[in-house]
Amino acid sequence: xxxxxxxxxxxxxxxxxxxxxxxxxxxxxxxxxxxxxxxxxxxxxxxxxxxxxxxxxxxxxxxxxxxxxxxxxxxxxxxxxxxxxxxxxxxxxxxxxxxxxxxxxxxxxxxxxxxxxxxxxxxxxxxxxxxxxxxxxxxxxxxxxxxxxxxxxxxxxxxxxxxxxxxxxxxxxxxxxxxxxxxxxxxxxxxxxxxxxxxxxxxxxxxxxxxxxxxxxxxxxxxxxxxxxxxxxxxxxxxxxxxxxxxxxxxxxxxxxxxxxxxxxxxxxxxxxxxxxxxxxxxxxxxxxxxxxxxxxxxxxxxx
Length: 304
Description:
There is one protein chain. By secondary structure, the chain is an alpha/beta fold. Helices cover 37% and strands 16% of the residues. The protein has a seven-stranded parallel β-sheet with strand order 8-7-6-9-10-11-12, sandwiched between helices. A five-stranded parallel β-sheet has the order 2-1-3-4-5. Helix 5 (100-115) crosses helix 7 (152-163).
């Protein structure tokens, strides 16, 4: 019987369906020290962002050669040493379409929160204050949104932004993309200099420099709003705080961090930052889609 380990939780109906199809399912989170040993006894491991499947874990799994498939319930696979896995006969797959609408809607939610001072207003009202005149916000309609990374999430966000009356520019390193002409392709420098809101939807590998740092902030409009629901490390957190303090950046919506849980309290508590604890895919609908895609992947892999 194929044995599946689910470390970071999955939709309960999907778990039930896996069992119905005859798979043995283990739902348990393992610490970094325990994970490698656990992988020796399973054929599939399904992870989200909390579990990091590193080379040392995979080496332990190779001692028995039972592990055949690693599935990331989500888009990015940077928490898996996929190159080492594939080189050693362990397939790595993800569920790229499942969470795209949810992440796009969170990015949009951060945009609204910043434009209308929602984090500040909540805090001051909880303190018994009524600072109506302090919160003179802006409308999103008519503003320019720059999307860096026009994949599934970028497209979902662009569609919603266009419906709200925004102009959308996008930058992507891929040359061949099926993107409607209503969205204008731009260079990275054009994106930086023309965007009122800049939303990032790109991966980053461990050890790579941040895509957005001091040099990039200097090229932006004064008062630009930055949204990062992609990966921690895409934006240099120290440079972002500096840009927020100077007023170069009018606000930032952040869902992902260099370290998670983050210890960067200066960023979290900054007056012009809207923060969430990596909840981009945390919707009922996204988790249902993730579960459905995981089932499809497993069945195709083992029932060829």
